[in-house]
Amino acid sequence: MSFIKKLFGLPDENDFDSMYKVQYDENSPDSVAYITANEGNFMFTVQDIFTVKGRGTVVTGVIESGTIHTGDTVTLNGKRKSAAFTIGGIESFRKLLDSASMGDNVGLLLLGAEKDDICKGDKLFM
To answer: Does the model's pTM come out above 0.85?
Structure first.
């Protein structure tokens, strides 16, 4: 087996440096954009849309990057409409939150939004 790995230039199982080597060029614009997108900018993909009677429109999904707080203004980049909405509330597993961050599965109450304005797969960002 070792001969085949050497023949095709594959790393040895015990050579962790070559197996998990991460190359990063800090001068590359792509690397800088990737780090910027994952560190602070809020990004959220809509997975489902609900209308809560007496409250408004709620979108659910997982926060891809950044942090969101109640009262923040987010921009919808959608198939049907592009608009700005204020976050009226954040809920995760039946708990009301003041803020949520990357990786959290949440429902966001969008003040002033209509269910017809938003589609699955639309992006919210800040």
So the answer is: no
CB 72, CB 124: distance < 8 Å: no
Question: b vs e for 71-87, b when ≥16 Cβ sit within 10 Å of the residue's Cβ?
Answer: eeebebebeeeebebeb
> What one-character DSSP code corresponds to residue 80?
S
- Quote the CA–CA distance of 42 and 46 in Å, as a whole number: 13
Kindly report, residue by residue over 23-38, the tens digit of the pLDDT.
Answer: 445 555 554 444 444 4
In whole angstroms, give the CA distance from residue 55 to residue 62.
21
Could you give all domains of the chain from N- to C-terminal order, each with its CATH number? 42-125 (2.40.30.10)
